[in-house]
Amino acid sequence: MNRRCGAVLCLSLSFCAPLCALTSSTLDGPSYFNSGKIKANIYHAFDLAYVTVNPLIPPTFEGANTTPINDRLKYIASKGYTHIQISPPIQTTPSVQYHDAWWVSYKPLICDLGYAADASTSPYYQKELEAAAVVLGKPLKDYSTYGVKIKMSDETERVVGYRLGSDRYGSAADLVTLIKNAKAYNLGIIVDVVFHQIGWQNEEFSENPVGYTFHAVNCSGPKIGSIKTTGIGLIDQSSLSNVHLNSKVSSLKPKPLVSAASVEATPTETTTTETSTGTTSAEAALVESAPVAAPAPVEVIPTPATNFIVPFDPYNRDVWQHGPVLNVNDPMVQTMAVGYLQLLHDIGVVGLRLDHVIATANEGGLGGLWAILAKSPDFPFGYAEVWSGNLKHLPAFGPVFPLEDFVFHFRLAECFVAYDKTVDLTKPEAIGNMPAVTFSVNHDIYPKVGNTLKNGFYSRSQHPDDDFDKAQSHLAIAYLCAKRDGSPLILRFEDERDNKKLIQRALAFRVLMEEKNAPHEYIVKLADDVFLIARQFGFVVINRGTTHSYRLNQGIIRDKFIPSVYIPDGSYDDLIDLGTERRGNYQLSNLNIEVSPMDAKFLVLSKPTYEQKSYDIVFKTVCGATQPTDQVCVAGSHPVLGDWWVRFDLLNGMTCSQSASNLGGLFPNWQSRPLRFPAGTSFGYRFAISNIGGVANTGVIRQSEKGGERHYMVNGDATVPENPPAAW
Q1: Whole-angstrom Cα distance, residue 319 to residue 310?
Q2: Rounded to whole angstroms, how far apart are CA atoms 634 and 558?
Q3: CA triplet 438, 3, 431: central angle to 5 degrees?
Q4: For the chain, what are the domain ranges?
Q5: Domain 614-720 fold
Q6: How far apart are CA 476 and CA 482, in angstroms?
Q7: What parts of the chain have a pLDDT lower than 70?
Q8: 604-625: per-residue pLDDT in tens?
């Protein structure tokens, strides 16, 4: 997390920043999770247990593989993934009674962290943190550090906050076990964080749900309409350390936790089989002890005397559509959220995904969210979900943190699912020129996992094993992996159904191109259903057609005027996986390959005829004829430079902002991001104004600099001087 702007500056940032602040970003990148130098391939371990599976919880959908993440680590690392994203790991209303209840994990409860059997015993949560510390190998802070002390309506004080531990996924100790074992494979854990809404204690689904949560705090206010905020019931359990094994029925007896000191003095008993990593589950850190006296059957916890919740608006019921909206502008809520992030940091989490940020902004809470981030510990990696397919909705977020690229996702769906021939994937509409990482969002559009939109992925069949829907989704992932920028989040369901090894080949290609620091992609549409993506050290051919194969030879490459610097002369291997398995050896001089319907070929340059190099080029200009809210670009005779237009993803856009705390601070000096080209690339170019006053990008050049065309040939890393100065 970059601390260039502190809490005060964060709160003072304009919520209606000009579009260029997003699409051209800033030279220093976003304020938080400035991950531009981190190349991430993320395995989305959606709705998966950490170490052991709760037998009472059904799979996300029928037939889904429920193998715990801990038992997948070797496989995940072997495929080229660098990070694992997990679902929210905090306590919610027990989800065991609901089918397809993955969504319950996105409705966190605010809990009484100091809840104990009686005043003479340590809080259950403290014992769970001590057990997690044993696995971690170092002490954690006192439980009160990870919450906020508030006064309840009965004048008592309690420490409340988010409580690590989930009936679906595992305990705090289980999560620490996963983090430690993943690190051994050089895999970092990213946690999904929900700060927009909270859950109701009993939800709204029935008067008598099967299980209750015994220490949630009623923060949702009085009963409004059908929203139930009754007292908190208790189930027969003394801790949540193995709540994922016993949250449904009281006949399941939990193993009570003991203090860390007692664990150290007692031989550890293993209660599960050994995992693929050679370690046992986190329950190995727990020991049997004398039963703890069962808590009283019912305790009604009063509402806290603080404004935790945005008031319910009966005229705008959509505000509470996912549960009571958390008031992140309240200082108490901010302290509570910071405490939770501190705990994640302390146990070794390396990154965050901020859920549903656009809803937080719609409730006026974006400043509060920024204040939380400014006060929280540093995370080297992270990004935010802003569910919108329209670029004009995103300017407030782009300078602050990397975003999931839903704009790009919707264009991919239009191309691969709706077969919209007007979608230009050679220069696609997307979030665009951000120095930090951007993301695809294939994982959020999936049968029974997200809201499947019309003409979205899997919208035709609504079934994960449909051959057409699966193939088109996989091809979209292959396209994303072939590009230089962006880090696909590949849902585990996609990976598991990779019978053509499309994703495996795509990831391998991506990793090899990153190793070579390959240039930005040169994309050509070979036919209505066929795309070629060239990266100098390899190229990809994607055939989205359903009936006909496509045959590529050197004659087609020549006829399409693909520069030889992007597909250089030499020998090419047909890539199978990230290891040594490759198929065939093709000479460019007699290239003749066939790409089957709904498939792709990944060819990597194994023996170039000549040494291959590529370089970063930065363009600069002074443009006093503009305002900081305008959009300036460098347009030229090359696809990366828009073929004399401004790209819809603004890859060839320029910025006058050094940082998010200094938007427009370099004006009237404009600068491009580094654009990478093969050595020997030559092109013409000129500077141009594409949009005025923050208007959404239309791809149209409104004004070009006066004078003739400029020319450049790439022969080394360079900042191209503005010589002669541009005249407007």
Answers
A1: 9
A2: 27
A3: 20
A4: 39-379, 614-720
A5: Immunoglobulin-like (2.60.40)
A6: 10
A7: 1-25, 34-38, 97-100, 200-215, 218-306, 312-321, 432-438, 442-453, 578-581, 692-698
A8: 999 999 999 999 999 999 998 8
